[in-house]
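Forgive a beginner's question, but would it be possible to get any protein sequence you like and the tokens describing how it folds?
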Amino acid sequence: MHVGLNLVYLVPGQTGGMETYARELIPALVAAAPQARFTAFVNREAADDPTGPWAQLIPAVTVPVRARNRLEWVRGEQQLLPRLAARAGVQLVHSLGSTAPAWGRFPRVVTIHDLAYRLAPEAHLGLAGLGMRVLVPLAAHRSHRIIVPTECTRADVCRLLRVPPGRVDVIPEGVGTAMRSDALPEPALRTRLSLGNRPIVLCVSAKRPHKNLARLTGALARVPAERRPILVLPGYSTSHERELRRRAAEVGVTSDVKFLGWVEPAELEGLYGAAACFIFPSLFEGFGLPVLEAMARGVPVACSGRAALAEVAGDAALLFDPDSEASIAAAIERLLRDRSEVERLRHAGIERAARFTWAATAAGTLASYEQALAGYERTLAGAAR
């Protein structure tokens, strides 16, 4: 089996969870199917990144577009990729980023991570949102199999895109190696990042409106000042960060919120190690990998009780109403005071996260490939009669 992996969407360092998916899944696929061939189809930005598994583990073909330009990305995926894949002799194309070529003389599999463009439209504004409204349904209807990470996303895809349930495979994502680097010791971490001595509430999240960080900031203000923790928000800056800073000022917690920007791996691991708890208040997720990443490190987690997050977290997290600042604040206070609950969540979280492995994701993905190939061959045989 020769599989082409469509990574035309992937701009290293700028593609969030869909980049993590590619970086983790490719090594797992190679390990799970040593007899198979994999070829990555990458844009110019990814071709220039020597750290990707598409450069180190499998051959890569450069699709001559720059995906930072949305129109170029679409042209590369819809016009150029099918021809390049045919020229490379692939037997199947798997598109890892929710969109996929609409044609090609090979079966097509697409991973649709979520329908945020429909259910959380503030996540995709302007041209990006318009493009997703066209390209994701096109991918769903023209692909032979669809992979989704949760039952919730499967239900969304079937209901909103009118896809038969039998074409959709639920394959949860995995949790990466919990410690990717040595953690910076807590005393050095607190000094370097000016965190003082208060308990740390950690939230590793993109700074985008649907991540609900404005309500998290408001919830922090509800915790009495004498026992208020410091909220730490690592991650690259976005235009929404200005609104979050204004919100912090409005509710009087400017000095209680740390916007760190990008942090080094050792600093991030140090933050997980020093955190009293991990809070994830997102209004919408297709899966919820940040919750599992925190659980795998033994950090007690409280998160939104919405849909996919509740499905992934199970009873290993304290769930709250993400629309209620009071509910979020109550979860924070409980994790700062209730030692028995904290210990329960630490152990339950580690056990829960261990169920989600990239090896299992790869095995499910390979099974989806086999179904797509078998169905395609049946279609060809029927057409030949």
Notes: The chain has two domains: 2-174+357-384, 186-353. The first strand starts at residue 2 and ends at 7.
